[in-house]
Amino acid sequence: MPSESEDMLIQAVERNSAAVLALPSAGMFRYHKTRFLRGVDERIWLESVPDERTLIESLIRSAEPVVVSFKCGQGKASFSSPILELDGQYRFFDATEPVQAIVMIRADKAKAVQRRSNYRVALRAEDGFRVQLWRISDVADVRDQPTDLCEISATMYDIGVGGIGVVFQEKPLLIPNQRMRLLLSWSNRPPIVLEGRSGTVRHEKAANTYKTGIQFQHLQDTLQGRQLLTELTRTVSALQLEEAKRLRRHAK
Fold first, then answer.
1. Tally of domains in the chain
2. 218: left (phi over 0), alpha (psi -120 to 50) or beta
3. Cα 93 to Cα 75: distance, rounded to the nearest angstrom
4. What DSSP element (H or E) covers 7?
5. Are 85 and 137 members of one domain?
6. Global pTM value
């Protein structure tokens, strides 16, 4: 019997669900819309991106994993797996013209990307919040200092009890559900180390910046985490009150 994570992926394939394909290239990711075509045994077919054929062929040779994200119910999920080959003659149902498809190894499981459930209040420069971010692996100890290569420069623009919103001046090397190490500080409080998971990176075309949300993880698991959660709740509540006052003044 398939697990819940396997079942999410099986259903997405059977429904020919839309998906987003993230192709690693020169330290960045190129994102493209795609769809599931079919699954047979341990393989999955997705519609390819003809304009990226050269990149895809290089990824096949290197066996470097790519990331696929898709909707599941009211949420999202993602998995990573290498591309095995290109199928240039795949016929989708009764289509007269074949489509170009990529063939991937079916992942053992797909990770659910948790949606934000807490209200976040917009931050101003004078609020004094600062954050440093690092990408870390799923097995890394969040207390360890990562290398400089894993650090991503970002600025906070909102905060809630469950997470923060950050903005990047350049497109970051991030995939959905990436595990993160955060060093968060505000006012005169000493910096604290937190674990988080990133959401989907969005391009803000008007400002030519990139944004994502990062959800805090495991705050309820330790006494220190629960104390921090209480402190965050008080801080966010105070910020919300100030925000409400500003909105009322502007509305007059």
1. 2
2. left
3. 28
4. helix 4-14
5. no
6. 0.55
